[in-house]
Design brief:
Blueprint: E1 4-11, E2 13-17, E3 22-24, E4 29-30, E5 34-38, E6 45-53, E7 60-63, E8 66-68, H1 75-92, E9 105-112, H2 123-137, H3 147-154, E10 169-173, E11 184-189, E12 197-204, H4 213-223, H5 226-247, H6 251-270, H7 281-299, E13 306-309, E14 316-321, H8 322-335, E15 380-387, E16 393-395
Parallel strand pairs: 7-9
Antiparallel strand pairs: 1-6, 1-16, 2-5, 3-4, 5-10, 6-9, 7-8, 10-11, 12-14, 12-15, 13-14
The chain binds ligand DP6.
The site of ligand DP6 has 15 residues, from α4.
GO molecular function, one term: ATP binding
Catalytic activity: (R)-5-diphosphomevalonate + ATP = isopentenyl diphosphate + ADP + phosphate + CO2
Organism: Coprinellus micaceus (Glistening ink-cap mushroom)
């Protein structure tokens, strides 16, 4: 008996031009194009194993070891159904000898290597890993099927997931067609083009239960007048300008647009009725610190050093070039000290020493330290230092998340 099984991992992506608003909620078609940086899977990733077998009685999915319901007509069911359809059309209808995997039920196990408590969105890497593992299982891989084609299906799991089908710098083109067949991800530049881009994720403590992206953006579409201005007059020019900046490795322009678009996104949230607040006082203090760092650096004739961006939550993602990341971590530590003994993640830049990371906190000469208060230990509860990364990976059979019987290990 053959075992039909594949394991894939997929990365997280953090947008620099934000997706916020749908013109079709079922197909997940956006009201504007967006652009993101794919982050390194060596740090943050979702891993998924899919197996097709004639003995399975229903499609079943386990997320982090727990069975997750596959609701009829829901996002998971749509992705699995669309992948089976593609398998049938592209492989089985053309080759009568190909096994009819599209007719078998699947068992899928998925695992995120980052804690949900970190408040990092897992839907993008999760749906990208799901689609990638099914694509390998069904032999829907290049040159037969491109990541852009797979992105059409991942998009129907979660909009931002379509951008995790590529590494590097990725655009999601909104498209025009009603069936969504032109609303897909394209690679703007691969990781190898600008590997110098690093990211520092500041995990900000948040006890409140936030508004989900899905419901928040719908409320914005229904009530915000500012959103109409953003999608018509702001985003199209920014998409073009930031793509050029990435191609030219022009960090100043990349940073200015990234910060402006994060501000614009949070402004349309505030313009929603009732208003949505994703950033908190700590998030805003981080903005003030980054703005002052850039002011000082521009004054010295060295240009921008860092760009902040915030998704639908209080965590900051700071993009910077490798040469500046140590100084930025030192500055963040000076304002937002870490719990001693934890977060060894950023110690790498200090030569990997295991001493208390807070001893590295430093404010640069000439920096106006009045721009923000110094916060208590734990206000920023974790720092993750990562960088631009590659697209989904095919993993070896011994990395399978399913045991011999097709049940999570
Ligand atoms: C603020 O992709 O999570 O992170 O399509 O409803 O699943 P759904 O929403 P989702 O929204 C992400 C919004 C964002 C901006 C972005 O990633 O572009």
């Amino acid at each position: 008996m053959s075992v039909y099984q594949a394991t894939a991992s997929a990365p997280v992506n953090i947008a620099v031009i934000k997706y916020w608003g749908k013109r079709d909620t079922k197909l997940i078609l956006p009201t504007n194009s967006s652009l993101s940086v794919t982050l390194d899977q060596d740090h943050l990733r979702s891993t998924t194993t899919s197996r097709a077998d004639p003995s399975f009685t229903k499609d079943t999915l386990w997320l982090n070891g727990k069975e997750d319901e596959i609701k009829p007509g829901g996002r998971l069911e749509t992705c699995i159904r669309e992948m089976k359809k593609l398998r049938k059309e592209i492989i089985e209808d053309k080759d009568a000898s190909a096994p009819k995997l599209s007719e078998y039920k699947v068992h899928i196990a998925s695992y995120n290597n980052f804690p949900t408590a970190a408040g990092l969105a897992s839907s993008a890497s999760g749906f990208a890993a799901l689609v990638s593992s099914l694509a390998q299982l069904y032999s829907l891989v290049p040159p037969v099927v491109s990541p852009s084609t797979l992105s059409l299906i991942a998009r129907q799991g979660s909009g931002s997931a379509c951008r995790s089908l590529y590494g590097g710098f990725v655009a999601w083109e909104q498209g025009q067609l009603a069936d969504g067949s032109d609303s897909l991800a394209i690679e703007v530049a691969p990781q190898s083009h600008w590997p110098d881009i690093h990211a520092l994720i500041c995990v900000v403590s948040d006890t409140k239960k936030g508004t989900s992206s899905t419901s928040g953006m719908q409320r914005t579409v229904e009530t915000s007048t500012l959103l109409q201005h953003r999608i018509k007059n702001v985003v199209p020019a920014r998409m073009a300008a930031i793509s050029t900046a990435i191609k030219n490795k022009d960090f100043d322009t990349f940073a200015r647009i990234t910060m402006a678009d994060s501000n614009s996104f949070h402004a349309v949230c505030l313009d929603t009725e009732p208003p949505i607040f994703y950033m908190n006082d700590v998030s805003r203090a981080i903005i003030n610190v980054i703005v002052e760092l850039n002011r000082l650096s521009v004054e010295k004739g060295e240009g921008y050093k860092a760009a902040y961006t915030y998704d639908a939550g209080p965590n900051a993602v700071i993009y910077a070039r490798e040469k500046d990341i140590k100084e930025i971590i030192q500055l963040v530590l000076a304002y937002f000290p870490q719990t001693a003994g934890e977060f060894k993640d950023v110690l790498g830049v200090f030569g990997g020493s295991v001493q208390d990371v807070n001893v590295h906190g430093t404010i640069p000469e000439g920096f106006n330290d009045k721009v923000a208060n110094k916060w208590e230990v734990g206000s920023v509860k974790g720092l993750i230092h990562t960088k631009v990364g590659d697209g989904p990976r095919a993993l070896a059979p011994d990395e399978s998340l399913l045991n011999a019987n097709g049940i999570p290990k």
